[in-house]
Structure formats: C-alpha cells, structure tokens
Write a structure and sequence with these properties.
The complex is a heterodimer of chains A (93) and B (964).
Chain A: H1 2-29, H2 33-58, H3 62-87
Helix pairs in contact in A: 1-2, 2-3
Chain B: H1 2-19, H2 25-45, H3 47-51, E1 56-63, E2 68-74, H4 76-99, H5 106-125, H6 129-147, H7 154-185, H8 190-195, H9 197-202, H10 206-220, H11 229-232, H12 238-247, H13 251-264, H14 268-290, H15 295-315, H16 319-350, H17 361-364, H18 366-380, H19 386-401, H20 406-434, H21 451-469, H22 471-474, H23 476-487, H24 504-525, H25 541-563, H26 568-590, H27 604-623, H28 628-648, H29 652-673, H30 690-719, H31 726-735, H32 743-751, H33 753-775, H34 788-792, H35 813-836, H36 844-862, H37 864-870, H38 875-895, E3 905-910, E4 914-919, H39 920-944, H40 946-949, H41 960-963
Antiparallel strand pairs in B: 1-2, 3-4
Helix pairs in contact in B: 1-2, 1-5, 2-4, 2-5, 4-5, 4-12, 4-16, 4-21, 4-23, 5-6, 6-7, 7-10, 10-13, 10-14, 12-16, 13-15, 13-16, 14-15, 14-20, 15-16, 15-20, 16-18, 16-19, 16-21, 16-23, 18-20, 18-21, 19-20, 19-21, 19-24, 20-24, 27-28, 28-29, 29-36, 29-39, 31-32, 32-33, 33-38, 33-39, 35-36, ...
Classes of the chains: A mainly alpha (93), B mainly alpha (964).
Chain lengths: 93, 964
C-alpha cells in the first residue's frame, strides 16, 4: 500500500513538473501577452501542487506553509499582470 | 561638576533656543544671556581654588578599556579663557539682541551662537587631546553655520564654505598631530603631554608632528598662508564677527599653541614655523588693512595682523614672550570686539561700511565715535590704553629674540614696520568714518543707536582704559595665575607697568606712532584712493583657493569620465571581473578541491523544474532589453523554481521569504513599467558589425565562465563535510538557551539580532528616501499620458474605479470582491506566520510582507483614491513603531542587567489558557513585522501615487459613463 502510495505521489509530482514545462512552452511562444500571463498562472499553480506532493511524499508539514502562501498570493502576480495589460497601470488613482 | 555644567549649559541652551518660535527675539536673548553669564559666574565661583594654584579636574569614564573618557581640566590659563569666552559671549548676546533685525530667524542665530560657545569652552577645558579635537571641529562647524547665516547671499555661502574647508582641513591636520603626539607620549591626557616635553622634543616624529600642528593652528587663527578665509568670513552678521572671528574662535589656534608651549617650544623648528608664520601675517595683515575700503575688512586684516603678533610672540621661545602673548590675547579681544561692535553700529545706522562713502559721523553719533576712538587708540598702541602695554612688551621681546645676527635687526624692524601700519590703519579707520565733513548720500540718516547696542562696546572700551592705566590692579592677578598655570616653576620675573623708563621699546612705540601718522598723512594728502595694497594685492589667497578647488573638481570629473562607464554592460563586466579575480587568487594558491560527501540522488521532478528555471533565466536575460513584460514573467518563474528548490533542500524559511518577495517585486516592477516606453525599437546598424559581434561573444563567454565557476565553487563547498563550524553551534544553542526551534529565526532575532536591527533600520531609511525622492518627482512628459490600454479601450477596458462606489464596475468587479475578501484572511495568515516564527518557518519579515501584499491588492483592485478614502494607512508610523518595538525589545535586557538584545523570557500563568511563554524576541520580531509592512507599503504607494499626479482626466466618476 505504502509503496503504491509513494509511487503515485512520485508520479503525480512528475506530472506537475511536466505540466510546468509544457506551460513554459506557451510562455515562450505566446503569441499574445495574455497567453503568457495565463501560462505564468499555470506554472504557479503547478508549483504549489508539486510542493504539496513533496509534503505528502516526505510526510513533513513544513511544505504546507509555503504551499499556503502560493495558494494565497500566487494569483496576486497574475492579477497585477492582467491589470497591467487591461488598464496599462497596476494601481490607478 | 561645575566644569561639566560650564560646557553643558551652552549646549542645553542651544537646544532650547532652537525650539523657540522665530519671533521670540527677547526670549532668545534672555536665554542666551543667562547661559553666558551663568557660565561666567560658574567660572568665577572656581576662582578661590584656581587662585590657590590648584587644577580642577573632572573625569567621566566612557570606554575605560580604550582609555576614552570625558576629561575636563581647568587651570589658571583655562580659567582666564573660560572667563573671556563667557563674558564676551554675554556682551555679544546683548549686542546681538539690538543688532539682529526682527525679520531674521533669530532661533537659528542664538542656537548656533550658544553651540559655538559650548564648543569653545570645550576646547578651553579639554584635558584630553582627542576630545579637544572634537570640540575644535565643532567650532569649525558652528562657525560655518554662523557665517552662512544669511544664506541667501552668495558671498555668505562662499565665505562659509571657504572657512569650513580651510579650518576643516586644519582640524584634520590637528587630529593627525594629536594622534602622533599621543603615540609619542603614550597618553592623550594633557597632563601627561605637558609633563613629557623633553621626550617629545627629542622624538624623531617631532618635526612632522610640529608641521601638522602648525598647519592646524595657522589655519584656525587665520595666519599666513591660510589667512585669506578670515576677510571672507566677514559676510557673517557683525556679532558673529565680533565674537568668533576676532575675540574667541580665531584665538583657538594661539590658545592651543600657548597650551602646548611648555611641551613643544624651545626648538629651532618651532621658532621658524611659528615665529615665521606669525611675522608674515603680522606684516601682510597690517599692510593690507591699511588699504581696505570696507570697515569690516580693515578689522579682519587687522585681526590677522594682531594674531600674527601673538603667534610671533609664542614662536620666540621665551617665557616673557609667552606671558606677553597671553596678555595680548586678552587685550586684542577687548578692543577688537568693541571696534567690531562700533562697525556694526555704523553699518546698522547708516546702511554702509564703505570707508570712502562714510565721513563726519562724530556729529551724528558722538558716543559711538568716542567709543570707537578709544578702541582704535588701543589697537594702534597709544599709551594709557591696554594695547600699548602688550605692544611694548612685544617690541621688547622682538629686540631680544633675534639675537645678535641679522635676525636681531630684522625682527625689530619688521615689528616696527607693522606698528607703523597698524597706527596708519587705526587712524584711517577713525578719521575717515568719524571726522571730516558730514557725509551725504548715505542709505540711511545716521543717529545715535539705542543704549543697549552701545553698552557692550562701551563696557569693553572701559576695560581697555582701566587695563591701560592700572594694569597691575585690574588684570595683573589673573594674568599671573594664567602664567603660573602655563609655566609653573619656570615663571620669570616680570612687571606690568606703564612706565619702564626710557627704553628702546618705548622709542619704538613712539616711532611707530609718529611713522604711522606720517604714513597716513602722506597717503591721505596724496589723495590716493587707497584702493589696493601695493605690491601684494596680486597675491590673492582667495584666488589660489578657488583655483585649487576648481582644479580638484575638474580632475575628479575627468577621472570619473575615464574610469567610469554609464553602460551597464561595462559596469557589470568590471564588477564581476573584479569579483572573479578576488575569487581566483586563493584558488590559484590552494587549488579547488571537491569534497567527498555523498550526493543526493537526482529527483526527476526537480530535474524538470530546474530545466524550466534555467530556460526562464536565460530567456529573461535575452528578453530584458526587448520585451520587458515577458522578461518580468520569466523572472517570476525563476523565483518560483528557486523557492521550490529552497523548500526541497530543507530551507522552508528561505522559500517563504523568496515567494513573498517575488510577488511584491512583480508588482513593484509593474508599477515602474507603467512609466517606461513600451518597447525599445532597434534601428541602429551597429548591431551587426563585426565589433559588436565580438563584444557580444566576449560577454557571453565571460558570463558562462563566471556561471560555471560559481557552480563549481558552490559544489565544492557543499560536498565538503563540516565545512562550517558555525552551523553546529547554532543548532546546539537554538533550543537551549535561546529557546526557539526554528534555527533560522533564532539566528535572525537572537544570535545576530544586532545585525537584524541594523538591517531593518536600513530598510526603513531606504523606504523614507524612496518616499522623499518620489514625492517631488514628476514622470517624464512622454509617459504622463493615460496609458494606451485605457485610451483606446483595447481589451475589455472600462473606466477606472469610482472612489464613491462600493465595487468597481466592469472587468474588475470579481477581482475586487476576491481581493477584499483576501484582506482579513491574509492579515490572519500574516499574524500566524509572525507568531509561529520562533518555532516553525515564518517570522516577522515574511508576515510583514504578507500583510503588505494584501494591502497592495486593495490598491490594485480599488484604486488609490478608493482605498485611501476608506482606510488611512500611515506607513511612516508603522516604520517608527517597528523600530521602537525592536529597540524596546533590546532595551528590555538592560533591566535584567544583560547585554543589549539578550532574549528575555517571561512565563505567564493565565487561567483557562494555561502557561503563556512570552519572550522579548517576539517583541523584536513584531518590530520587524511592523517595519516591513510600513516600508513596503511606503515604497509601493509612493510609486503608485505617481499616476495621481498626471494632469489627468476630470474627476473620477464623471467619466464613468462615457467610457463604458
């Protein structure tokens, strides 16, 4: 059971890393800036999931703090970028 | 204790004076007057002890390990000078009360005047040479501030700068001399130095030390060749000229010479340096004074000349000359200060100080004329006045000091010639201003000044008369005490008297009087405009100074131009190259050895992550110049991969911090990006030349080499087991005794808390500087327009948020709801990270950044006006509170008699909750938290406020409908 669980977690984290690489392709190729921002968001999300998988694999709780932070604030960068594209400035008067 | 009070009182008064309102002229004058008379009274109260020949000492240890202490010491000589400084101070304050115009900001004036008085008293009373240097520099600074008091006048600024540079350079030289003296003697205490005269004079450093000391003394006392700053310092208000630049500060140099006279004098070098400088100043000053047009310039050059006389006396290596020098310091202070005051009165009442315009003022102001007449007589050395006595002593000494050779003729001749000039300029000063037909076409109609303005001058002149007629009864005792303090057993027999019989010096005095009168008559009758000094007018010290200044600045600029490039590529190449050389040097000798620590097996997940990170890093570097937004996104990805790596390699604290910093940096750069042009268009044909290609290949090769080198170094470090002994120490001591499970946090807030305190201070300063710089900054004209996206409504669009509406309409509605819901949650998380920091990943820094990010999100979704009309954040207050909390946490240790910033643990037993474990490090971490929140917000909001400045659209809200 444990070995299967470990293997599944290992496989999942591998998939998330692969997803990051694939999102990176979108980030590099574009073509629109919006595509790149979307790819950026996807990379952040997958990064958080990789971290959770690490936590599950190692049975340690310290990864979850970092994951929580990505979950809370990963989108802030995306929102800022999106707002910049939408309005031309991040903080309006 | 009295001594400390004498020095402290003026500084306290200075602080109080600075806080009074600008209009409180009377209160300022009362305060300064009370301080000055208080100092004088305190000094007078010590008279019995001083008169008995004791030395009053006060020593307050400061760093006993390094032999540093506050050491005040008053002997007879210091006592005399203390009295001089404080009594003069009181008179000048009284005079300044009436001199200063109601429009002048008097708090600044009196504050610096009192600070100067304190510094001067500090010089006089210092028993430690280094401490003396500190006070010496303080007088230079306060003098700078007082000369530049009317800083709207260019000549005041220039004069102040010149005085500051010359006397400041002298101060530096004094510090060197004192350090050498301390090394020779083995102690900086004045007592030890004075007792080690033979040792000093025989030491091989003596010549170098004496040259440095002479440079210091000659600059401070405005002696040739550094005399040129004094006439330009006359741009100061007249009370300052009377007090600093004739009576006290310029005396600091000769004071120090006399102070160290017993230990340093008696050598050939001393004679040539000191006596030579003094003689040159005596003659040049007297000659120049004769040909000035400005009354204050006459007095300034005459001051140079009289200080030259004192310096010359000190250089003569004779005990009697030393006594004459001290006597003349007192006499000069009395008559010169009263002359300055009279000049100020004339300037005040007529509006001009030009000798060629003034005439016949004795009709309009007979009292002032009388006072000035007597004082000028003392300056010229007329019998029955105090100047005569010391000048006669000077003539006597000059006859003896030269010996029998050529010097024996040259010195008295020089002294006599200077005497002739001094009579001539005194006569001219009085005759042109007060005699002759009444002047017409003066800016103001002259009349007698108020009594308060005349009183100090009159009192000083009374002093001149009394000392001149009854020297032994008036100052004889004080002078004897001072001379005894300086010379001790070597005190020679001397007599202060008006009549010594028919002597050669008496003859010289009369020759000088007659010659001076004749010289003036010749010059006056010949009607020469007396515009410039013959022969020496081309030798302008000011011009030399200016040329030197400009040359240095030009040279610096040329050096910067050759050594510095504005191109980032070149700068980076140099910096990284220098670092590479520094790293290679030890490797060259020791070689690079890799350790044999077992390697962690490669995890394929991270292999892929690092591949992604590397691609992003390279991509960001490539795109940085062409596509900023894309580069920014890629940098964000690199940051994410880095922080994931930190987490994976058991550094969760670093991972947390890196993440929060990444997020906030992205927002920060985006805020800046708004003000940059969209994209750089490259049309330059140079991009494809062979040279450009070569340069790029070189840079690429260099970058790769550096990167590989860094990786090799890191690998070598990581594979060596036990490379650091610091790590195990921290691990062992973190829980017990430091009391925290999170070693990283314990290091930050406990082991190295002082570092952290310094760092957060820097962060706070940086934030305030950013705020201060951006507050007055206006964006470039090209980028001030509304961004293109809004103007053209390219995508979605919609108007900016209406600060009155609860929620923005349009595309931002959903982010706004989410962002606002995030705030309380984020605040909770931030406090959670703060509180758990000591035992688990987190801490004040991460917590602070989380809260700051959440606040910034509010700005992003709502707009600056929306947020600030509902929630006033005062980031500066957060910064201040943070620093206060951190310092308070450090101070708490003092109550337990432990060193600063030692952790203090407090166990509280509360009902229901149980035992609460409180530690002062939590307060410290709270300080970090508050400061980080404040600093991050201050910087980001300052940047965001730029767009409020642009000449924007109509009031927000009005435009809403139109844009939608």
């Amino acid at each position: 059971m444990n070995a299967i669980f470990q293997g599944a977690a290992w496989f999942a984290s591998l998939c998330f890393a692969l997803a990051i690489l694939l999102a990176l392709v979108r980030l590099l190729r574009g073509p629109a800036a919006q595509d790149r921002v979307l790819a950026f968001d996807a990379i952040y999300m997958n990064g958080m999931l990789t971290l959770l998988m690490l936590g599950i694999r190692s049975g340690s709780l310290v990864y979850f703090g970092t994951a929580l932070l990505i979950a809370l604030f990963g989108f802030v960068g995306t929102v800022a970028l999106a707002k910049f594209l939408l309005r031309g400035e991040v903080i309006e008067p | 204790m009295t001594l400390a009070l004498i020095v402290l009182l003026p500084f306290l008064g200075s602080l109080c004076a600075a806080c009074l309102p600008a209009s409180a002229r009377n209160a300022e004058a009362w305060l300064a007057g009370i301080v000055a008379t208080g100092c004088a009274a305190l000094a007078a109260s010590l008279f019995p002890e001083i008169a008995a020949g004791h030395v009053v000492r006060l020593s307050i240890p400061w760093l006993p390990q390094a032999g540093l202490e506050l050491y005040l010491r008053m002997d007879g000589y210091a006592w005399l000078f203390t009295l001089l400084v404080s009594v003069m101070g009181a008179l000048v304050v009284l005079y300044a009360r009436y001199y200063m115009s109601p429009r002048d900001p008097v708090p600044r004036f009196f504050s610096f005047l009192m600070a100067f008085m304190g510094s001067m008293l500090g010089i006089v009373l210092s028993g430690n040479l280094i401490q003396l240097v500190v006070f010496w520099e303080l007088t230079s600074i306060t003098s700078f501030m007082l000369i530049a008091y009317w800083y709207h006048r260019p000549e005041a600024r220039h004069g102040a700068r010149m005085a500051a540079i010359v006397t400041g350079g002298g101060g530096l030289s004094l510090l060197l001399a004192v350090l050498m003296l301390g090394q020779i003697v083995g102690s900086y205490s004045l007592d030890d130095v004075l007792a080690a005269g033979d040792l000093i004079r025989a030491h091989r450093w003596y010549p170098a030390m004496l040259v440095l000391l002479a440079a210091a003394v000659l600059t401070k006392s405005a002696q040739f060749p550094f005399h040129f700053w004094l006439p330009h310092a006359m741009a100061a208000p007249t009370p300052v000229s009377a007090y600093l630049h004739s009576a006290t500060m310029v005396k600091a140099g000769v004071f120090l010479l006399a102070r160290l006279w017993p230990a340093l004098a008696g050598t050939e070098l001393w004679f040539w340096l000191i006596c030579g400088g003094g003689a040159a100043s005596l003659l040049l000053g007297a000659a120049s004074a004769t040909f000035q047009r400005d009354m204050k310039a006459v007095l300034a050059y005459s001051t140079v000349s009289h200080l030259g006389l004192i310096t010359m006396l000190l250089g003569m290596n004779s005990e009697l000359a030393l006594i004459a020098a001290v006597f003349h310091m007192m006499n000069h202070a009395t008559f010169k200060a009263s002359l300055f005051m009279a000049t100020g009165i004339v300037d005040h009442e007529t509006g001009t100080r030009d000798l060629s315009r003034l005439s016949g003022l004795r009709h309009a102001m007979p009292l002032t004329a009388t006072v000035a007449f007597v004082a000028a007589g003392a300056m010229a050395g007329v019998p029955l006045l105090n100047g005569f006595l010391s000048k006669e002593m000077f003539f006597t000494e000059s006859l003896q000091a030269g010996g029998t050779g050529g010097l024996g003729i040259a010195l008295p001749a020089l002294a006599g010639l200077a005497g002739v000039f001094s009579v001539a300029y005194s006569l001219r000063f009085i005759h042109q201003v007060f005699f002759g037909p009444p002047a017409t076409a003066l800016p103001r109609t002259p009349r007698e000044p108020t009594r308060g303005m005349l009183l100090p001058s009159a009192l000083l002149v009374l002093g001149c008369l009394l000392i001149g007629m009854l020297p032994e009864r008036t100052v004889g005792g004080a002078l004897a005490i001072a001379a005894h303090a300086l010379l001790g057993d070597r005190l020679p027999d001397y007599r202060l008297a008006i009549w010594h019989g028919f002597t050669a010096s008496l003859l010289m005095s009369f020759v000088a009087l007659a010659g001076g009168t004749a010289l003036y008559v010749v010059l006056y009758v010949r009607g020469r405009a007396l515009r410039r000094t013959p022969l020496i007018s081309r030798l302008s010290g000011k011009r030399g100074f200016d040329v030197l200044n400009v040359t240095i600045f030009r040279g610096a600029r040329r050096f910067v131009r050759t050594a510095f490039s504005q191109r980032l590529q070149v700068q980076l190449l140099l910096i990284v190259g220098a670092a590479a050389v520094a790293a290679l040097l030890p490797l060259w000798r020791g070689g690079l050895a890799f350790g044999d620590a077992p390697l962690t097996p490669l995890d394929p997940t991270f292999a892929m992550l690092w591949l992604a990170g590397a691609i992003c890093a390279v991509g960001a570097a490539v795109q940085a110049k062409f596509h900023r937004l894309m580069a920014l996104i890629m940098v964000g990805c690199v940051g994410l991969v880095t922080s994931l790596t930190f987490a994976w390699f058991s550094a969760p604290d670093l991972a947390l911090t890196q993440l929060t910093v990444e997020v906030i940096t992205t927002v920060l750069i985006l805020l800046g990006l708004r003000w940059l042009p969209r994209r750089i268009q490259f049309q330059e044909p140079l991009r494809h030349t062979l040279r450009a290609r070569l340069r790029r290949s070189r840079d690429a090769a260099f970058a790769i080499a550096i990167g590989v080198g860094m990786a090799a170094l890191a690998f070598a470090m990581l594979t060596r087991p036990g490379a650091s002994r610091l790590g195990p120490f921290f691990l062992q001591n973190a829980l017990e005794p430091a009391g925290g499970r999170n070693v990283v946090n314990v290091i930050l807030v406990d082991f190295r808390a002082f570092d952290t305190l310094g760092e957060i201070t820097v962060v706070g300063i940086v934030a305030l500087v950013v705020y201060a710089l951006l507050r007055r900054f206006r964006p470039a004209a090209e980028s001030i327009d509304v961004p293109r996206a809004q103007r053209e409504g390219l995508i979605g669009g919609g108007a900016h948020a209406d600060p009155r509406a609860l929620l923005p309409e349009g595309d931002l509605k959903i982010p706004a709801v989410l962002g606002r819901l995030l705030l309380p949650l984020a605040a909770l998380v931030s406090v959670y990270f703060l509180l758990r920091g000591h035992d688990a990943p987190g801490g004040g820094f991460v917590g602070g950044l989380i809260l700051a990010t959440a606040m910034i999100v509010q700005y992003m979704v709502g707009g600056a006006l929306w947020v600030e009309s509902r929630l006033r954040i005062h980031p500066q207050v957060w910064i201040a509170l943070g620093l206060l909390a951190a310092v308070a946490a450090g101070l708490a240790a003092w109550f337990a008699a432990r060193p600063f910033l030692t952790a203090q643990v407090l166990e509280l037993h509360a009902p229901l909750i149980g035992t609460v474990h409180l530690s002062s490090v939590l307060l410290f971490d709270l300080g970090v938290y508050l400061l980080v929140v404040g600093a991050a917000l201050l910087m980001l909001v300052a940047l965001a406020h730029q767009s409020l400045r642009s000449p924007r659209r109509e009031l927000p809200g009005a435009v809403d409908g139109a844009a939608l």
